[in-house]
Write a structure and sequence with these properties.
extended; single chain; 3 helices; mainly alpha; two-stranded antiparallel sheet
């Protein structure tokens, strides 16, 4: 059976399960945030623009904020004017859809699928991309 030296992880015939133990101490840095970076010094959630809270990305303010995020991304990163920047859901599905629609078709491809997401992408490749 697979053995692990990770504290709080138990092994039952190859199945790893996390314990329900409480998390360790909070980070020393009070500006810690989710992800690999911390909040900037002086960050305060109270300073966020509340007009967008609870609003759809399809609302007028939602569309304006997305357009601003896209234009600022292009400006800050120095992306050429004839390049497009898109914002997609923060998921593997969104990332895969972007890659699939932008890169498939330049070369011959073999496509296989094993589950529901793959089946949908297979259908897109055959019916929409005509691969």
């Amino acid at each position: 059976a697979f053995r692990t030296a990770m504290p709080g992880v138990q092994n039952f015939a190859g199945l790893r399960m996390m314990s329900a133990a409480a998390p360790g101490p909070k980070p020393v840095n009070p500006e810690f945030s989710s992800g690999p970076c911390k909040k900037r010094p002086g960050y305060d959630v109270a300073n966020l623009d509340k007009r967008t809270l609870g609003r759809s990305h399809r609302s007028k303010i939602g569309k304006e904020r997305l357009a601003l995020a896209i234009s600022e991304t292009k400006r800050i990163l120095g992306i050429p004017d004839d390049y497009l920047v898109g914002i997609v859901p923060a998921s593997d599905t969104g990332a895969y859809e972007m890659a699939m629609w932008n890169m498939l078709g330049a070369r011959n491809v073999d496509i296989c699928h094993w589950e529901s997401f793959g089946k949908g992408w297979f259908g897109d490749a055959v019916s929409h991309l005509k691969l």
